[in-house]
Amino acid sequence: MADHQRIHPVPEPEQEPPVQKPTVPLVPRGSFRSEKGDPERQQLEPPPLRKRTIPYYPPLKPPKKRICSCKRCLCCTCCLLFFLIIIIGALAAAFYFVFQPKIPNYSVDSMRITQFNFNNDMSLLFATFNVNITARNPNKKIGIYYESGSHLSVWYTGVKLCEGSLPKFYQGHRNTTVLSLNLSGQTENASELLQSLQLDQQKGSIPLNLRAKVPVKLKIGKLKLMKWKFLVKCKLDVDSLSANNAIRIRNSDCKFGFRL
């Protein structure tokens, strides 16, 4: 008899539980997978390392409003000065064409020495000069007031021999006035001056300088302007410096200037 075949029951294979679909989509609607990447992969991958950055601070700049205000102020100042220069130039041109101012003329016509002697030890020199000066005002519409406080002096080789002053007077339009002035003074340490004077007197040419500082006021119409100061320098060449003798002026050159 054949052996009974044993039949063993074969267990049925276990069924895997059904995979539940996620109720919420991993990728939001209206977006693509490439925008956010794979969420599962994002969970597995570590977060990227953050680089440490040093903050950048730009250089400080001055405020633009302040610069603009300074430029405007400078521009306004320059424009104001420009207009002032134009106005002053226009007034000066009008004054020149209306009044036609001209420089006064001065000349030394003659000179006479009434005293020119030394003391016993030749240490002091006493000198008195009489000088005739002609002052001419060539202006048609400008008068000159010669004020007090003028100063005249005669010099020889840088040494002052005598001094004096002009009288106070008014010189009208196109007027010529001849002034006779007495100048006197004394000079110390005159021994060296005597030697130089004797040499020039032998040559027949003695250089003298006459200097004048005269305060004046100009009269234009009925208007009297502020005080000015006339400066006159005359270079003279005389033949001798002998007392009680008329001195012949061989050459005379006068220059005029003025200042406030």
UniProtKB/TrEMBL annotation:
Q: Which InterPro entries does this entry report, sorted A to Z?
A: LEA_2 (IPR004864), NDR1-like (IPR044839)
The way this protein sits in the membrane is described as: Single-pass membrane protein
Enumerate the transmembrane spans: 73-99
Bias class Basic and acidic residues marks the residues at 1-11, 32-43
Q: Name one GO biological process term.
A: defense response to other organism
Late embryogenesis abundant protein LEA-2 subgroup domain sequence ranges = 133-234
Give the subcellular location: Membrane
Give one Pfam family, short name only: LEA_2
Annotated region Disordered: the residues are 1-55
Instruction: Spell out the GO cellular component terms annotated for this protein, sorted alphabetically and separated by semicolons.
Output: membrane
Q: Which UniProt keywords apply?
A: Membrane, Transmembrane, Transmembrane helix
Q: What is this protein called?
A: NDR1/HIN1-like protein 6
Supply the source organism for this entry.
Nicotiana tabacum
Lineage start:
Eukaryota, Viridiplantae, Streptophyta, Embryophyta, Tracheophyta
Query: Which gene does this sequence derive from?
Result: LOC107809495
